[in-house]
Structure prediction request, 115 residues.
Amino acid sequence: MALMYSAKPLLVLGSGPDEKRFTASQFRKGIRRDFSQVDKLSMSFDWIKTDAQGDVAWFASEVTLAVTVGKQRSVFPYRFTGVLVKKQSQWRLRMGQMGLVAACQNAGESWPSKQ
Prediction:
């Protein structure tokens, strides 16, 4: 949460239909909900690309989330992108989007194949 941009507007999108956050408070509430639904969560960055111009920076990354609920462990591939702004000499996330990689889409295909 320390990396979040505290002033409005903020935009963070997740994969779920209700995961649209427009303030740091809404984002915090969503993160609390997410953590309340798992016993253990870990996130690893598989790769990350960054660039910046002045007080604006952006990134794209692929991450793996591993979650444990009870005795069930699940692993999910995500893509995470964002825009950061420099505020008082510190970078803050202003916009972020984390989307689940579509398991039904094969490499080299944009859509399911025609039958």
The CA atoms of residues 24 and 58 lie 19 Å apart.
